[in-house]
């Protein structure tokens, strides 16, 4: 039996789907490149933007047509608003929260699917209480998956609170890459920015136990991973939900840093995304103190105007942000700085936009992910008028992007003539160049068709710059586990 999985949205969803793949493969399913060849079709959804929701409907309409030709089961999980969940129940066979992943084999067997895993089991799967109740109500038809009878069971919705996230973290992921990996360190968010629906789709913040995070990092380091990213909606508020029973984010970084530096292995550890509210000097000092903690910080600003920041419920003002940047420049002068910005948020005036422009000019970010505001269903701002005209949003986006390109170019020019250590991540479409990133995540491209270099550290002499990237010549390939600057 085969499965196909579609993952929409952010890095967190991609990380979640690595655990989902593991559970599905443990049940005996193998990957199907084409949806048409799959018996199990799954979607990790994102409710943050309407575009992503539209994609869910396009997919399920297609999959439901496939059901006329063959027996298959469809499911949806991920970031789903309660209102969308109710609609999805009418379209998908299974709807569940990602925190309920450990129960997925039970859900599937309850639906009437006999997986190879299920057939091999000598003992019955332990179904959670609420599943048994749902089962009675829904009157499921028990079917063997490969018989020709149409599956007539009604949709299953697992709908318990996110207290199951701990068992989700226990699941070993099937990583999508053998050199880059993401470690979830928390789930949910307590910040309630007015433009964001995450606190309603993922729920309140829950920190993963630090010993599990450190153990997962240790395994990845031993397996030779070169780039490890600690992942969460608000990584630097890590531990605060445990009221002193868990270490802080700075302490977590230090523990990983100590372990990593002592390992003798060569790799970089990143984190995303922090919130300015919880960004103390202790976090910056930890990054400065450990070789393996990458000198690159992604710190979302969102707006350079204090009134807009209040309207966004960002709980920091421009001065707070400025103080953090000053600390970064003082404690880690070589660090690169990335950010996120929204233009055309509801009510944004020309003057307020101008303040964002000034902030961009002041902080000289190496990279900024600039988004035009669009209504995110479920977010508080969805109740407010989306009153900045499309053309003005477009203009602001282009204007800021042009300014960002100037700063990026100025910085990248300083790299000309230097030798950069690069993690090679991909080849270009024509197969004549490879590209990678330095520790600060500046893109470096060089001529080579040697695909065996992907996933390795190499040294490149930078010779020129292009928009948001540099180009250079390959000088050497680092030996595995040989730590060199
Ligand atoms: S910090 Fe704000 S933008 Fe980030 S996940 Fe939480 S509510 Fe959304």
Please provide a written account of the structure:
It is a single chain. The N and C termini lie far apart (48 Å). The chain is globular and about 60 Å long. It has 15 helices and 19 strands. Helix 10 packs parallel to helix 11 (281-289), helix 11 (281-289) packs parallel to helix 13 and helix 14 (350-363) runs parallel beside helix 15 (390-413). It has three domains: 2-164, Methylthiotransferase, N-terminal domain (Rossmann fold, 3-Layer(aba) Sandwich), CATH 3.40.50.12160; 169-413, pyruvate-formate lyase- activating enzyme (Alpha-Beta Horseshoe); 419-477, Nucleic acid-binding proteins (OB fold (Dihydrolipoamide Acetyltransferase, E2P), Beta Barrel). Helix content is 34%, strand content 21%. It is α/β, with parallel strands linked by helices and 485 residues long. It has a six-stranded parallel beta sheet with strand order 2-1-3-4-5-6, sandwiched between helices. Strands 15-16-17-19-18 form a five-stranded mixed β-barrel. A three-stranded parallel beta sheet has the order 7-10-11, with helices on both faces.
Supply the CATH architecture of the largest domain: Alpha-Beta Horseshoe
**Count of structural domains:** 3
Q: What is the number of E strands? A: 19
Unreliable spans are 114-161
Radius of gyration: 24 Å
Tell me what portion of residues adopts beta-strand conformation.
Answer: 15-25%
* Global structural class: alpha/beta
CATH superfamily heading of the largest domain = tm_1862 like domain
What is the average per-residue confidence, as pLDDT, rounded to a whole number?
Answer: 88
Task: Write the CATH fold name of the largest domain.
Answer: pyruvate-formate lyase- activating enzyme
What is the first-to-last residue Cα distance? 48 Å
